[in-house]
Amino acid sequence: MSMNNDSFETQEFKLNLGPQHPSTHGVYQAVLTINGEYVSEAENVIGYLHRGIEKMCESRTYTKIIPYTSRLDYLASMLNNHGYVGAVEKLMGVEVPERAEYIRVIMCELQRIASHLVMVASMALDFNAFTAWMYAFADRERILDLFEMACGSRLTVSYMRIGGLSRDLPEEFMPALKKLLKELPGRIKDFDNLVSGNEIFTGRSKNICPIDAKKAIDYGFTGPNLRASGVQFDLRKASPYSIYDRFDFEIPVLHNGDCFDRYYIRMLEMYQSLRILEQAVESIPEGPVMAKVPKVIKPPKGEIYHQIEGSKGLLGYYIISDGSTKPSRVHIHGPSFVNIGVIPEIARGITIQDFVSLLASLDIVLGEIDR
To answer: Is a pLDDT exceeding 80 seen at residue 10?
Structure first.
């Protein structure tokens, strides 16, 4: 007996994706209203990790705030350090020594590569590609080895100081870095060959959840997610800070704005970070790594906003100083928080498995969202 498909009816119901689900990349929750396999509504739920870092900064000295910045985007600690100390230095008018600036760039570009490796590895793992995950994390471990060599920490580094760095590089750092720079391009290419043309990976990412340039700008996208939608904007070129204007590198841009492009733009950016690193290693000068700053940091009264090109987008610090040893107000512009704003609109009408692809491609970290 044949059965008329019209006799089957579905009913909308709520599905909680997270906060304890591996594909939510941390304690993020999406409340999905689904009809069968399709999402009709999506709601972002955050706050499970909230630690009140911005408020705690008001009761800490300027130097003691540095470890808190490492714990925002804990996959990009060096970049967080750089953004914060740069803001205080701008407020105080401090000139950072040349050698310290070069080391900062080296650390930040290594951190950018390490962060992108986590993104591409995690996206592959979300599609059940465990081998690819192991490839990328093995390379990330070598970068973390360099961080440990420089400052004794691998994840939450707290390496930078207001005016420079906590200490100079050890003798064994540069030989290890040069060895890594020689081998890493081939390793990234191996990952590219393994994943980027894989039929399952491309089937779950190409033409999935496209975001055009206008929508990306409207939602405040920055960083790789914006460049994957065809907008060639990178703060290191548009408004160079530190010594980025001394390096020759390109800003990769893709135009489909789909999950695949948001993945692949990070592959392309890793090669450009390697270009910057090679130039920095060749031209790094000798000299001090710390400016002459007071032991007790007391910026003058005033306010400052300073931003850098983080691994996930523009990372900004707004600081109000009342002239004391502690800031009156600190606010952090975190790109992960901004990027999830597009989810309710883009998720409407897609399947549950495509929602996993969307979330992976946006590359969020909850430490930066739940500040």
So the answer is: no
Contact 361, 119 (CB under 8 A): no
| 8 has pLDDT over 80 | no
Nearest CA among 86, 84, 82 for reference residue 104: 82
Measuring CA to CA, how many Å separate 205 from each of 82, 120, 209?
A: 33, 12, 8
- Report how far residue 170's alpha carbon sits from residue 175's, in angstroms, rounded to the nearest whole number: 10
Is it the case that residue 5 has pLDDT exceeding 70? no
Cβ atoms of residues 39 and 351 within 8 Å? yes
Domain extent for 176: 5-369
Contacts of 248 (CB under 8 A, 6+ apart): 275, 279
pLDDT of residue 6: 57
Secondary structure string (H, E, C) spanning the chain: CCCCHHHCCCCCEEEEECCCCHHHCCCCEEEEEEECCEEEEEEEECCCCCCCHHHHHHHCCCHHHHHHHHCCCCCCHHHHHHHHHHHHHHHHCCCCCHHHHHHHHHHHHHHHHHHHHHHHHHHHHHCCCHHHHHHHHHHHHHHHHHHHHHHCCCCCCCCEECCEECCCCCCCHHHHHHHHHHHHHHHHHHHHHHHCCCHHHHHHHCCCCCCCHHHHHHCCCCHHHHHCCCCCCCHHHHCCCCCHHHCCCCCCCCCCCCHHHHHHHHHHHHHHHHHHHHHHHHHCCCCCCECCCCCCCCCCCEEEEEEEECCCCEEEEEEEECCCCCCCEEEEECHHHHHHHHHHHHCCCCEHHHHHHHHHHHCCCHHHHCC
pTM of the model: 0.94
The CATH number of the domain where 14 resides is what?
1.10.645.10
Counted domains in the chain? 1
Q: How many CB atoms lie within 10 A of CB 102?
A: 21
* Cα 71 to Cα 38, 237, 245, 365, distances in angstroms: 36, 27, 29, 11
Residue 307 has which token pair?
């931003």
| CA–CA dist 78, 67 (Å, integer) | 11
